[in-house]
Amino acid sequence: MILERELYKSISTTRAITKSLRIFLMNSVKAVFSNKNSEKVHENSRGLPELVNTNSCGTCSDCISVCPTAALEATHKNDKLEHLYLDVRKCIFCGLCEEVCSPSILTLTDQRPLSSHGESSWTIDLLQVK
User: Fold this and answer.
1) How far apart are CA 65 and CA 105, in angstroms?
2) Per-residue pLDDT for 37 more than 60?
3) Would you say residue 84 has pLDDT above 60?
4) Cβ neighbours around 80 below 10 Å, total
5) Dihedral of CA 107/109/114/120: which sign?
6) Per-residue pLDDT tens for 100-125?
7) d(C-alpha 74, C-alpha 86), whole Å
8) Which residues pair with 108 in a beta bridge?
């Protein structure tokens, strides 16, 4: 039973990583062969993630498993997302969580906090932010 659970976790993580690599490679190929100027750096800059529709978010946890710095944590209750915490100290704003989210619920905004006056504001519950 324990071995089956570990195997399922391993397969799920492998699928999430494969999906994010495929999306990354497709976007890289598009960027290389497109005729866009590379001068527009600020247009593609990323800010804090936000949840667009909290009711549609399931328990797949692909965004959590693909995060290279483990900046996202989630708690589920009755197959619904109860909390989605983002640790701003760990997040590198790479965008992998947004690319892996299949119903496009998690998106990166242009909001960037400039300073913080306490440790409590370094961890954000994305379900409470609006």
Assistant:
1) 16
2) no
3) yes
4) 11
5) negative
6) 887 778 888 877 655 555 655 677 88
7) 9
8) 49
Q: Which residues contact 27 (CB under 8 A, 6 or more apart)?
A: 99
Task: State which amino acid sits at residue 15.
Answer: R
Structure tokens at 91: 């997040």
The total number of residues written for the chain in this structure: 130
pLDDT at 88: 84
φ, ψ (nearest 5 deg) of residue 2: -70, -40
| Alpha carbon distance, N-terminus to C-terminus of the chain | 41
| H/E element, 26 | helix 2-33
Q: What distance in Å separates the CA atoms of residue 13 and residue 114, rounded to the nearest whole number?
A: 33
**Among 25-39, 59-73, 74-88, which stretch is predicted with the lowest mean pLDDT?**
25-39
Rounded-to-integer distance, Cα 94 and Cα 65, Å: 14
Q: What distance in Å separates the CA atoms of residue 130 and residue 75, rounded to the nearest whole number?
A: 19
